[in-house]
């Protein structure tokens, strides 16, 4: 039985996906999130459905924490594992990490790369799925401002950081043709991502009532995970829900791709 690592497993899409996969009994689930109690409760729920799961608590709020998490995962899983990058942050205000970087830039982009690198170095991965966002098409990367959030926006920062990670994963696919890599927009899903307080939060809660439930999205992702192959060797394809689409224009822009690549390499080298 192969291993499937699922980040952001304690709530929303991740929680629903873990329960959907539990019913298939095809993989051991390696569930990752910050909240140990919620993870352990989810492990129990998975096992009640006949699945197998373990909890690996971990934090993607810093490069150091991500590196430690990656090492723990490399020790816990066998070669041939699938990694589902699902954890994410939609910030409402600019916050800096102790390293002086904007929090969403770390959680949505740098830290997943650091965590993943330990698994790649240990030869543990066969497939990587990135639960991204259709809003990458609104993203813009400023090498001088985005990493530290000097261009912070309650909407745009999410778009920018999701774009960065999508572009980085295209480079990972090119550098590791042995991997099957996919980046996708999962749908417009009713979760607590991007929750706000006050009148804006109230309005958003009303709008979200019309969005699909996490369980609907989870069933979609489970179908995609069941596919024999996602992308040609050396490439990462882009899916909008279950349909392959051309990459958005901003993700094809060579200047943007080069700026993200160079900035990411510099920051990872300094970690």
How are the secondary structure elements laid out?
Layout: E1 2-7, H1 12-22, E2 27-32, H2 36-48, E3 52-55, H3 63-76, E4 81-85, H4 103-121, E5 125-131, H5 156-175, E6 180-185, H6 198-208, H7 214-225, E7 236-240, E8 243-245, H8 249-252, H9 254-269
Parallel strand pairs: 1-2, 1-4, 2-3, 4-5, 5-6, 6-7
Antiparallel strand pairs: 7-8
Helix pairs in contact: 1-2, 1-7, 3-4, 4-5, 5-9
Verbal overview:
This protein is α/β, with parallel strands linked by helices and 271 residues long. It has one domain: Rossmann fold (3-Layer(aba) Sandwich). Helix content is 44%, strand content 15%. It has helices at 12-22, 36-48, 63-76, 103-121, 156-175, 198-208, 214-225, 249-252, 254-269, and strands spanning 2-7, 27-32, 52-55, 81-85, 125-131, 180-185, 236-240, 243-245. The chain has an 8-stranded mixed beta sheet with strand order 3-2-1-4-5-6-7-8, sandwiched between helices. Helix 1 crosses helix 7 (214-225). The protein is globular, with a radius of gyration of 17 Å. Mean pLDDT is 92; it is low at 200-209. It comes from Archangium gephyra. This is Oxidoreductase, short chain dehydrogenase/reductase family. InterPro entries: NAD(P)-bd_dom_sf (IPR036291), SDR_fam (IPR002347). GO terms for molecular function: oxidoreductase activity. It holds the Pfam family adh_short.
